[in-house]
Amino acid sequence: MDTRGGRNIDPADQWVLDPETGDYRLQEGTGDAPAATVPAQGGRRARREGERRSVPEPDEGGSGSGTGGGTRRGGAVRSRKAKRSTKRKVLMWTAGTLGFVLVAGSAGAYLLYRHFNGNISTVDVGSAGNKNATSDDAVNILVIGTDSRIGLGGKYGDAGSVGHADTTILFHVAKDRSNATAMSIPRDMVTGIPACPTKQKDGSTETIKGTPKATYSPRFNESLGQEGRDPGCTMRTVTALTGLPVDHFILVNFEAVKTLSTAVGGVPICLTHDIDDTDERGQGSHLRLPAGPHTVQGEQALQFVRTRHSLKNGSDLDRIDLQKQFLSSMIRQMKSGDTLTDPRKLFKLANAATKSLTVDTGIGGVDKLTALAKDLNQVDPEHITFTTLPVVDNPAEGKNHRTVVVDETRAPALFAALKNDVSLTEVEKKPTASDAKLKGPKADPSQVRVTVYNGGGPQGSAQTTLEWLQNTKGVPHSTNGGNAPEGQQDRTTLAYAPGQADQARALAAMMGLSASALHPGKDGSGAGTDMTLTLGRDFKGPGVPVTAQAKPPADVPQSQADKNVCVG
Asked: What is the pLDDT of residues 53-92, one digit of tens each?
């Protein structure tokens, strides 16, 4: 809110209709300075079909009734509009919240909608992504920083480089929006790249052949750009690697870092030692900064996130630590009151964000990006944790370390934590609707009817569970269904009819199932029929609780978005 003149003014109310021109203008604190205007749709300045309208940036200034000849008429308009509530508001700013993914929040405005919408570039990734912008489930967004030099005039090296996945972060937001984890994926990690269908310019689909993992290749960054791979290929690679479905991607280039950091007025960072990032061959980011706190923007911000030669090991893993600090600070800056209540900054941020980003078609519009930003705004920066996919030096390279491989002792625990929405910070879980499924009366074991299928447990799990239920738990109406007809699945599930809720609660208590494992049907009493228990990969044996992981994995380095720490 603006507080000029001692009043709280909604930024949306600073735009008023000029009855003489038919245009909307941003009111100034006094009536003396010229005001920025935006043509009204359908007015005499509205753009002709096919033309692109240039929308002026809002000027600095407050909101007031104005002076001179326009006071009486403008004041009457404002008075009538105030009585009509928000229905007659011309402009509604929606604040920036998804700071981590650099779009943070798009300023959603009716008059500016078509302008911002025209800025956004999209890629159709087909089945690799989610067609819906928001979800009631957990959300996984892949942020890809490309090192493409196309259109940059050779300023940063090879002008024809199509770019690879130079910096990649999987942003996982818990289902209840209580926490989020941002996991960096090292670009030089050796991993397989699956086959990938890509949309061509003529509308056809071309499937790019996958590349299996070998001793030294391929590297993860080759999942984008190489052989014509698009961001959907990177999404599929991450899913194959982690087991997590990726809903959306956001692709940023060098210019995005420069324009967004400038739009928010600079990003505060802190260094533990002096940085001079130019090696003996003249390569590097060319950043020169003394130790201590700084605020970087534009070209210097880009240099900061590209720096690695002058760091401890001169590696991509060291650079990831700098990027974590930059993004954490960006979140704080974007969610600060200075940004969210300043129309000029909001306009700059929204314009820079929509011009600088390429996204999947599922979020390819201002309305969709705004909906996503509002959804993810529920996560407090205190509970946004940055970490890195656990890796080790590639043992096949000996002492000549150029690549890394997944650390098979630590990575699985982190992947499991993400799948089960386990926060890496201490956070109070919000109660969910599914929790109610475990509350209520339980049927007597003799009344429980269930067919057991093996959908990922150890061999013979269906039979051993059947015997355990009948001989130990007193469930005579249980049957071995063999292998699950739908194939294998990660989690154990129990499907039942609404009329079998008491049976489901009884069986869940015996098996140690969490509320998320229970899947009630929409109709039917279930009388005389069996529930369906499908044992997933998380099943360890009858009597062993099959519940979501309750503790975060140990030995995983992490930092929180609300903490300002020095790195380097």
From this structure: 444 444 434 434 333 434 334 444 444 444 333 332 222 2
Q: Angle at the Cα of 137 (from 519 to 559), degrees rounded to 5?
A: 130
Strands 384-388 and 180-185: parallel
For 137-179, the DSSP string reads S-EEEEEEEE---TTTTTTTS-TT----EEEEEEEEE-TTSS-
109 closest CA partner among 376, 375, 369, 372:
369
Check residues 558 and 248 and name the one with the higher pLDDT: 248
Mind listing the pLDDT tens digit for each residue in 101-122? Answer: 333 333 333 446 667 778 888 9
Which of 430, 414, 427 minimizes the C-alpha distance to 552? 414
For 159, residues 6+ apart whose C-beta sits below 8 A from its C-beta are 149, 150, 152, 153
Residues pairing with 2 in the sheet: 9
Determine the angle formed by the axes of helices 299-306 and 316-334, rounding to 10 degrees.
Answer: 140
User: Which has the closest alpha carbon to 188: 229, 223, 230, 148?
Assistant: 223
CB-based contacts of 68, cutoff 8 Å, min separation 6: 31
Rounded Cα–Cα distance for residues 57 and 393 (Å): 49
Residue 369 contacts residue 103 (beta carbons within 8 Å):
yes
- The sign of the dihedral angle between the CA atoms of 439, 440, 446, 447 is negative
Picking from 80-84, 122-126, 259-263, which range would have the lowest pLDDT averaged per residue? 80-84
Q: Do β-strands 139-146 and 248-252 pair in parallel, antiparallel, or remain unpaired?
A: parallel
Q: Give the whole-angstrom CA distance, residue 356 versus residue 121.
A: 9
Count of alpha carbons within 13 angstroms of residue 405, beta-carbon side? 13
Distance (Å) of CA 229 to CA 123, 232, 243 = 12, 8, 20
Our separate counts of H helices and E strands in the chain read: 12, 24
